[in-house]
Amino acid sequence: MGQFPSKGLLSCGFRKAIAKSGLQPAVATLGPADLPPEPNSTVDWSDNAQFGDHIWFETSGSGDFCYVGEQYCIQKSVSRKKCAGCKISVHTMCMQQLEKINFRCKPSFREAGSRAVRESNVVRHHWVHRRRQPGKCRQCGKGFQQKFSFHSKEIIAISCSWCKQAYHNKVTCFMLQQIEECCSLGAHAAVIIPPTWIIRVRRTQSSLKSSKKKKRTSLKCNKSSKKGSEVNGRWKPFLVKPLISQLMKPLLVFVNPKSGGNQGAKIIQSFMWSLNPRQVFDLTKGGPREGLELYAKVPNLRILACGGDGTVGWILSVLDELKLRPQPPVGILPLGTGNDLARTLNWGGGYTDEPLTKILSHVEDGNIVQLDRWNLNVEANLELPIDVFNNYFSLGFDAHVTLGFHESREANPEKFNSRFRNKMFYAGAAFSDFLSGSSKDLAKHIRVVVSRPATLKRRSGSDDAISIHC
Length: 470
Prior knowledge:
Elements: H1 12-20, E1 56-59, E2 80-83, E3 89-91, E4 110-111, E5 127-130, E6 157-160, E7 166-168, E8 198-200, H2 205-212, E9 224-225, E10 228-231, E11 234-236, E12 238-240, E13 251-255, H3 259-262, H4 264-274, E14 280-282, H5 289-294, E15 302-307, H6 309-322, E16 330-334, H7 340-344, H8 356-365, E17 374-376, E18 387-389, H9 397-411, H10 419-436, E19 448-449, E20 453-457, E21 465-467
Helix pairs in contact: 9-10
């Protein structure tokens, strides 16, 4: 936590102790030359990942004061950015000033060989000063006083970015011994992947030398260890070492930010605040495979797919390819336009901004059901791919309209920024396609083989007849 003057009774030494809390191991202050040229807007999985890095997004919150305080704020009339992990706001020009007040984001991983190895099940609180805070103080039970001035500069609360507990900025509410207390991770601890499970490993000199040599077939090539792992010639800087517990239901969240009128972009930030940012993945940054491979051996794993039916199908297909056993159950946060699969599984027809804490409770407590999935083999032309559908597939009129929507959205994503507008596009494309009669008499050109050839009819006939609506 940063060092700010306030009307609370916290001493300077007290504030310095808070600034160092929650960061295991301690991190040396970086000089200006060591800072990245551009602020991170996504989780860094590379060798260059910094302990306690913030994840910055643009914000229009004019009521949020720059977190560094007036003493260190160097430009007050420019754009601000907000960290998704700890929810602090700073001016873009003031980001480097965070090093001066020794404030970093909540740690999302630990270093191999650090003292955290000896305390692998311990997560510390990550305390943050707040000038505005909803709810009530955990100690005295009173609400956090909001000044008549909307732009009050007084720090009124101290809250933890992990468990979300908040206290008044007074020694009568927040006591010194709480700084180093273990954090419970809050109401959703069962689905949060603790930072102590995720280990960043340094590449040793011997591994660097061996990587320059020609590849050799060896049983040790694809094994993981505390020294890291190298799979298919690619170095993996991170590995996951979970603690087995029947109470834990670790969750991976995959978000398609393009779904539902770009609603997913806000969802990503909300999940990074509620969970460990390293368990939230943007599907436009390489797809779901990397995340699924990293967490493949985590027991009781659950997955939340945030997007449309196509997003869910994509994740399920990658799970098929990886052959995980047992296969993790997949929940759905419907952000698409149709969301037929989400309706079938009782996740609703669309996300309506309900609190994410409610969604996380559904994921944790939801019943696991089996879903039939089919491999569709097209034999008429061997050049065609093998397609997978979940509970239905379409061809002809319906498929042509859906394909037109997909291609238009890929070409002009800025025009598809609301679910209502997407539905209007569907209606217009369907009406135009219907008038053109592009799928007329489609049934005359199709033969469906079940156990023996079947006759296609527009209406149900004998037991051997199959109806196809064209």
